[in-house]
Amino acid sequence: MTELLPIIQLGNPILRQKAKLIDNIEDENIQKLIDDLVATVSKSNGVGIAAPQVAESYRLFIVASHPNARYPNAPEMEPTAMINPRIIAHSSEVVKGWEGCLSVPGIRGLVPRYESIEIQYRDSHGKLQKQQLTDFVARIFQHEYDHLDGMVFLDRVESTLDLITEQEYQQQISKKNA
Ligand code: ZN
After folding, report:
1. What is its EC number (predicted)?
2. Which structural domain, as residue segments, surrounds residue 41?
3. Which of 76, 93, 144, 166 is catalytic?
4. Distance 49 CA to ligand 1 centre (A)
5. CA 133 to centroid of ligand 1, rounded, Å
6. Domain-located, residue 90
7. CA–CA separation, 16 vs 25, rounded Å?
8. What is the pLDDT of residues 109-151, one digit of tens each?
9. Does 17 reside within a domain?
10. Cα separations in angstroms, 101 against 32, 118, 134
11. How many structural domains is the chain composed of?
12. Which of 63, 151, 154, 168 has the most crowded CB, counting CB atoms within 10 A?
């Protein structure tokens, strides 16, 4: 049975740990964790979720870009589990964009990220996948990847002036981009 998992929030020390590599992707607990993360992220209006956010300190996240109430302009894709992911190469271009986090409710920040990245990861069947990601999906990957190293987007903003509340974001920014 797929379960919705409680999401831990900023201040919980698990969010600040370096997550462990997964050796056995076939393990039934890992397979269940993947299914539960997919269900949890879609229920939460998220576009990504990392295992440490549900207090499971493993190198696994879901990238699940789709337009929703929190990200109305997000591109549509199938939710994809990425296990033991790595960034192989990245563009020199860095772009700033607005991010939020299910573990940091109520706050948005303007975060610099590489515009495009070349990545590899194991999929839920253990198969090695290599991809080039750009723009918003590249941003999601980099955000989730940081969770595996104990970082959150607040650590990446250049100034506290680049932080705003979710309510102001919805009123000022989201409307402008729609
Ligand atoms: Zn996050």
Report:
1. 3.5.1.88
2. 13-176
3. 144
4. 6
5. 18
6. yes
7. 23
8. 999 999 999 999 999 999 999 999 999 999 999 999 999 999 9
9. yes
10. 23, 23, 20
11. 1
12. 63
